[in-house]
């Protein structure tokens, strides 16, 4: 068997792993890899490299690709600033459980520790923001390391893995053969649940009077079949379903048992139902502080079941009565099977649904119109109206627009909603849309943005143009870092310190400068036509939609408050427990 350079081994291993797209940016410490990629493509190879304009964007594009396709995202960057620029996206992927492999160049092994040109301690810097990381010193180990990295990134709780490869290791030669299935000596995620725990869970569900299915990003991670199984479990138990920001789409928004998102900007009915439930079945969610609010007031009357593939996630924030360590897809399959096998009649939850109907009647997502000015919620609903039949993929930036999109754009299936939840990274949406479009060439992909966030990775307009990606950007332009302004209004007596988006560019001209089509929408009378014009254009389009500037995003549970302290647009309704609810618990 002939020996190959480390760089050639890397490219061959990526091919063996089925990698089709790599998002990257070149530099001195990865030139041997770029050369191997060049030769691979010249010989008709299948790995496509997407040249982003900033390494942070490579990581978010890889996240968007991964979240929308279920395949791992792959990133290639140089040493030093290339690697440090990637750190935000790596951390983002860790927080949101996104499978990603990041290959970083490193200075030659003999120079490590000498403050060499573009040297950074990538393994040290990324130790706490990766699921695992490697510094490869021996080219003979490179092939196996790459396969192991993909195994770790994609199995169990998915996450980012960094492989740091010194330049001399890229050049040195070794043998490579595709390894068989990876069996790590210690890392063995538990995929199947303990069956007695499943039986207990089913008994608890059958006996509950006020159950709720609290679903999260883990269901999206578990693949589309898990969403189907969730619908089946909901159907046979009759239980209401809510979801975190990360789980939207796992249960269809048009489904009869859907309560909407829960948490800080969740619906009144979802949060009140969590508060008054007697059983919470947490399926692939992690009791995040945006969801629980004040911990000592969180769902005080319920017993809790937690299904999670990551053992360390269980009892981390909230103590549960029944932990189930498993892939949630498998656990759902088992629960549905056992529930049916026991011939449990559909529980009678009429009284519970009557209470929920009362909370639903509050219509917590309703908003007041203000004449000709576009309300941001109205803009999202109009966008949904015009596009939902095409089942678009929606990405977002971070801020009010993100929450309005979560509240008002109904998702009917998984992998259509890509957002930065855990880290809340402004600048995520455009590169994520690029990644999603590459993974789903025929899909309609829209980044719902704020005028501040979009500027954080605006250079990626060029990437979309270079690869002829027909991505759409829909900016809800309120001339404020709206989410910051809202908090300042509510908690700092409207002292708007540095939250005005001053000196904004002319977004239409900016779009045109990059070869995009630019459209401005300035009033309700232009909204539908503007959206139609965006959809009619088969290339990339940026829409600058001017919206009412001082609108707040409600409902809102102030940080650290209880679910019952929710602020609604109409302050007449509070989350206080009514007499009927008191009688039940
Ligand atoms: C401005 C802003 C406002 C926000 N407001 C809200 C809000 O109102 N409501 C809200 O919900 N969120 C909100 N968020 C998001 C919030 O910060 C968290 O990101 C989110 O709540 C976490 O979702 P999750 O619990 O589904 O967990 P994820 O981060 O999606 O984690 C998934 C969990 O499932 C597990 N898991 C992964 N794969 C599997 C599998 N195959 N099988 C089983 N388990 C698996 C993981 O171990 C993990 O515990 C907001 C974010 C921002 C930026
Ligand atoms: C990288 C980064 N820096 C700062 C923040 C804090 N932050 C959260 S929302 C927000 C304002 C976003 O403004 P904009 O994009 O205009 O959206 P809007 O809230 O107006 O919809 C800021 C600064 C963040 N989430 N990410």
Polypeptide structure, described:
The structure is a single chain. The chain is an alpha/beta fold. The protein folds into 3 domains: 4-174, Rossmann fold, CATH 3.40.50.970; 195-360, 3-Layer(aba) Sandwich (Rossmann fold); 376-546, Thiamin diphosphate (ThDP)-binding fold, Pyr/PP domains (Rossmann fold), CATH 3.40.50. It is 38% helix and 16% strand. The protein contains 22 helices and 20 strands. The longest helix has 16 residues, at 139-154. The model is unreliable at 572-578 and 580-585 (pLDDT under 50). Thiamine diphosphate binds at residues 397-401, 424-426, 450-453, 476, 478, 480-484, 501. Residues 397-401, 424-426, 450-453, 476, 478, 480-484, 501 line the site of thiamine diphosphate.
- The portion of residues assigned to helices is 25-40%
Mean pLDDT: 96
What's the CATH architecture of the largest domain? Answer: 3-Layer(aba) Sandwich
What is the count of distinct domains? 3
Q: Please give the radius of gyration in angstroms.
A: 25 Å
The percentage of residues in β strands lies in 15-25%
* Global geometry: globular
The DSSP helix count reads 22
Question: Which runs of at least 5 residues are low in confidence (pLDDT < 50)?
Answer: 572-578, 580-585
**Largest beta-sheet details:** 6 strands, parallel
Distance between the termini: 72 Å
Domain Thiamine pyrophosphate enzyme central: 198-334
Pathway: Amino-acid biosynthesis; L-valine biosynthesis; L-valine from pyruvate: step 1/4; Amino-acid biosynthesis; L-isoleucine biosynthesis; L-isoleucine from 2-oxobutanoate: step 1/4
EC number: 2.2.1.6
Pfam families: TPP_enzyme_C, TPP_enzyme_M, TPP_enzyme_N
């Amino acid at each position: 068997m002939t020996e190959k350079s480390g760089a050639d081994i890397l490219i061959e291993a990526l091919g063996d792993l089925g990698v089709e797209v790599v998002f990257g940016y070149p530099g001195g410490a990865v030139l041997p890899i770029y050369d191997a990629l060049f030769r691979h493509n010249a010989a008709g190879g299948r790995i496509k490299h997407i040249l982003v304009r900033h390494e942070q964007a490579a990581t978010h594009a890889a996240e968007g690709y991964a979240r929308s396709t279920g395949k791992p995202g792959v990133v290639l960057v140089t040493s030093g600033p290339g690697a440090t620029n990637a750190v935000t996206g790596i951390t983002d992927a860790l927080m949101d459980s996104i499978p990603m492999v990041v290959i970083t160049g490193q200075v030659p092994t003999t120079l490590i520790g000498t403050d060499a040109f573009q040297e950074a301690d990538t393994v040290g810097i990324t130790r706490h923001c990766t699921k695992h990381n490697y510094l490869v010193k021996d080219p003979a180990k490179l092939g196996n390391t790459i396969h192991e990295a993909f195994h770790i990134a994609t199995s169990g709780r998915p996450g980012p893995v960094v492989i740091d490869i010194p330049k001399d290791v890229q050049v040195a030669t070794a043998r490579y053969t595709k390894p068989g299935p990876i069996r790590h000596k210690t890392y063995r995620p538990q995929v199947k649940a303990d069956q007695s725990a499943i039986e207990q869970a089913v008994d608890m569900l059958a006996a509950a009077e006020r159950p709720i299915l609290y679903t999260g990003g883990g269901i999206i991670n578990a693949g589309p079949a898990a969403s189907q199984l969730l619908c089946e479990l909901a159907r046979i138990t009759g239980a209401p379903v809510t979801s975190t920001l990360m789980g939207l789409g796992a249960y269809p928004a048009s489904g009869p048992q859907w309560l909407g998102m829960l948490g800080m900007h969740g619906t009144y009915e979802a949060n009140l139902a969590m508060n008054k439930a007697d059983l919470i079945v947490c399926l692939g969610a992690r009791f995040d502080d945006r969801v629980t609010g004040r911990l000592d007031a969180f769902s005080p009357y319920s017993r809790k079941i937690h299904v999670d593939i990551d053992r360390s996630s269980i009892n981390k924030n909230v103590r549960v009565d029944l932990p189930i360590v498993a892939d949630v897809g498998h656990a759902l399959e088992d629960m549905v099977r056992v529930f049916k096998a026991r011939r449990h009649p559909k529980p009678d939850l009429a009284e519970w649904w009557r209470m929920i109907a009362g909370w639903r009647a509050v219509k917590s997502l309703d908003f007041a119109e203000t004449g000709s000015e576009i309300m941001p919620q109205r803009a999202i609903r109009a966008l949904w109206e015009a596009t939902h039949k095409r089942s678009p993929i929606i990405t977002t930036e971070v801020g009010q627009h993100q929450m309005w999109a979560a509240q008002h754009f109904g998702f009917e299936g998984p992998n259509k909603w890509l957002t930065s939840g855990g880290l809340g990274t402004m600048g995520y949406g455009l590169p994520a849309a690029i990644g999603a479009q590459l993974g789903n060439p025929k899909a309609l992909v829209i980044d719902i943005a704020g005028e501040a966030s979009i500027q954080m990775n605006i250079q990626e307009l060029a990437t979309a143009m270079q690869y002829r990606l027909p991505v759409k950007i829909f900016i809800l332009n309120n001339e404020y870092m709206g989410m910051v302004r809202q908090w300042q209004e509510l908690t700092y007596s409207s002292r708007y310190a540095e939250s005005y988006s001053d000196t904004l560019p002319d977004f239409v001209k900016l779009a045109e400068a990059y070869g995009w089509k630019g459209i401005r929408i300035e009033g309700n009378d232009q909204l539908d036509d503007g959206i139609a014009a965006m959809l009619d254009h088969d290339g990339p389009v940026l829409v600058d939609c001017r919206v009412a500037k001082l609108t707040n995003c409600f409902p809102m549970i102030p940080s650290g408050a209880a679910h019952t302290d929710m602020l609604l647009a109409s302050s007449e309704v509070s989350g206080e427990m009514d007499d009927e609810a008191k009688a039940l618990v």
